[in-house]
Amino acid sequence: MEMNKWSGKAYSQRYYEILEKRKSLPVYAQKQEFLQCLMSNQTLILVGETGSGKTTQIPQFVLEAVHENHPSKWLVGCTQPRRVAAMSVASRVAEEMDVAIGEEVGYSVRFEDCTSSKTVLKYLTDGMLMREAMTDPLLQRYKVIVLDEAHERTLATDLLFGVLKRVLSNRPDLKLVVMSATLEAEKCLEYFRGAPLMKVPGRLHPVEILYTQEPERDYLDSAIRTVVQIHMFEPPGDVLVFLTGEEEIEDACRKIVCELGDQVNVVPLYSSLPPAMQQKIFDPPTENVRKIVVSTNIAETSLTIDGVVYVVDPGFAKQKLYNPETRVESLLVSAISQASANQRAGRAGRTRPGKCFRLYTEKSFNHDLIEQTYPEILRSNLANTVLTLKKLGIDNLVCFDYMDPPAPVTMGRALNDLLDLGALDEELNLTRTGEMMSEFPLDPQMAKMLIVSPKFNCSNEILSISAMLSVPNCFVRPRGEAQKAADEARARFGHTDGDHLTLLNVYHDYKQNNGDSNWCYQNFINHKAMKSADNVREQLVRIMSRFNLKTCSSDFTSRDYYINIRKALLAGYFMQVAHLDRTGHYLTAKDGQMVHLHPSCCLDHKPEWVVYNEYVLTSRNFIRTVTYIRGEWLVDVAPDYYHLSNFPNCEAKRVLQKLSKKRDRAGNPK
Ligand code: CDP
Ligand code: MG
Q: Domain named Helicase C-terminal: which ranges (predicted)?
């Protein structure tokens, strides 16, 4: 009997079933060729159609090769741009290898490490591998690194290109496999000079592309209508609909169920969906029931769903955008690229000829859509990137080997922000604070807020707030009858001074009720989000204690309890402050952007000054998670940033001027 060399047990029935399927994947036919190529090259580039088996099979091939030649415990790492993909693929591969997830095969994503000392194959987000490089600059634990989904050109993947190139020249024994669906292969070949390109021939069936005659006014409506029509008039075959985010997807799912009832099996797919629900998209089909998957971009290339014959593509996705002038980074629903549209269409032709319904005109495809999505490095705030690269010892950020260099103005802005936060000194070297900030897996402002919170005697509370801000929204808001009850429950947690303190109230109540799931249910609180917040908090506590930052609280009955917390918030987020002008509008301090309080905001009045956690661009400019602060504090907490000499002329400046005069008078009586 054949034994599983990892577990030492006999293979299960399921193992053999999956093995048959694996053998039919296109990459399987090229296993030997791949292994030879791997043996004779340090870097190799592999391009193959989505669904050809790259992500699930190639790391296993690598593993076989590595463990034949190196019996010791070497790790193979495979990066994914998305945490959902890392988790889902790791589970799948553990199943394929007939081992328990977290043992020989594991995953690591921000705030969640599911690996053990036994782990030999690890799926991890590209961001996590960057973090690992910060403490292990030569990535000594790895024998082979697979950079997957390179065509997505996420910020972290782009940085890894440069970092790994350096590591490879210092470690001749390390190998790199770059994998991608479409990739501008030439660019990659040029970048990794000398690396061979291996192509896995696709076995795509023809996909008929149908455009709308006229532009659609409401793509959500039109998507739902199209699904209903497909179901009524097209032969059997599953449907994949691309929408932009959780709320929209849940909304669409409800409406489709409403129209078609149980003739169809409607499955949502987005990143904050619990893993068990995500797994449902891979459930084997039920006879005579059409499966309709409504998904974000995840299903474009990261996850392959078998059985899809029809694709509905409204042509939009949420994309990160950054404007260095206004310093606003936001996720914006925007038109996809032609390359993305073609990837989406391809999803229809995996098993047999399919159809793709594009909910835009052919003219629009040709003239309005850009050819390729811009790499994320050109669309992001780079403050975190600079911090990481500095920590990696890369001092000259201009000479770093970027595949696409970032815009100088964006780079300048990042350096400025880090100077303002005290992370860099005048020579642009990391300060002690900067060193510490780089070790928090958080944005620089939040890291700064945590680091200074002991000085405000409220690090316990700031830890809780940071944890709550790092997990998905904890408030559940069902549709229909329960909605009112949910809103009332939410209002009970409301704090008059703002949303950050409301989140703190939720966390405290949750802890007081010992993390009881019933309590969560009754109060319309998402239990899973709370459990992750608890977990995140623990991890942040560990980082704090590594730096001897004490955990402390002010006396709860003291007047200063909430004031201290609000000041600490400001000490991190002083760049995200808005001032109410005489016309009743908020303008962001310094940048003068008009913004509105997000509808979810718990404030029942409009304070003159607020600090906000996030700028959300939708139909209007919203600031979300907002807390009331006092103008006087700005000068105390961030004297340099709010120094009047470097302030543009605006109403906020005049108010600050008055405040500082008043302060001087009070401070130095003549
Ligand atoms: O990476 P690539 O797009 O080339 O393919 P893959 O993700 O390795 O997927 C290969 C096959 O595994 C597809 O047919 C998937 O449907 C299947 N798969 C699965 O059944 N369950 C998963 N959780 C992941 C993949
Ligand atoms: Mg893949």
A: 226-393
